[in-house]
């Protein structure tokens, strides 16, 4: 519970701290390792799950030092 409070104390993208969702970087809700979890405000969380903004959000997270897995949904050569 303490880790949850720490992770969700602010959005990692915009620092909003009123309502913060827990996001699994690898989208596997069974993988609760600390390096797989980040806090996102509802807007950025929704944008990350929306194909139109996904690449932009992943690029922002990478620039902030997070290591999200490669997203096969964005690979149009498949």
Structural class: alpha+beta
Radius of gyration: 12 Å
- Strand neighbour order, sheet with most strands: 1-2
Mean pLDDT: 91
Query: Helices and strands, in N-to-C order?
Result: HEEHH
Main beta sheet: 2 strands, antiparallel
| Count, helices | 3
Number of strands: 2
State the end-to-end CA separation: 40 Å
User: Which spans have pLDDT < 50 for at least 5 consecutive residues?
Assistant: none
Determine the strand fraction and express it as a percent band. Answer: 5-15%
Helix content: 25-40%
Q: Any idea what the shape is?
A: globular
Describe the protein's architecture and organization.
With 78 residues, the protein is α+β, with helices and mostly antiparallel strands. It contains three helices and two strands. A two-stranded antiparallel ribbon has the order 1-2. α2 crosses α3. It is globular. The model has no long low-confidence stretch (mean pLDDT 91).
How would you summarize the topology of this molecule?
Elements: H1 2-7, E1 21-24, E2 37-40, H2 42-49, H3 51-63
Antiparallel strand pairs: 1-2
Helix pairs in contact: 2-3
Name a few traits of the molecule:
78 residues; alpha+beta; two-stranded antiparallel sheet; 10% strand; globular
Task: Give a short overview.
The chain has 78 residues and is of the alpha+beta class.
């Amino acid at each position: 519970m303490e880790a949850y409070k720490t992770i969700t104390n602010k959005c990692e993208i915009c620092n909003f701290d009123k309502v913060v969702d827990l996001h699994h970087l690898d989208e596997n809700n069974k993988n609760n390792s600390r390096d797989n979890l980040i806090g996102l405000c509802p807007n950025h969380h929704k944008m990350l799950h929306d194909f139109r903004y996904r690449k932009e959000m992943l690029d922002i997270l990478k620039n902030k030092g997070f290591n999200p897995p490669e997203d096969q949904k964005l690979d149009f050569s498949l």
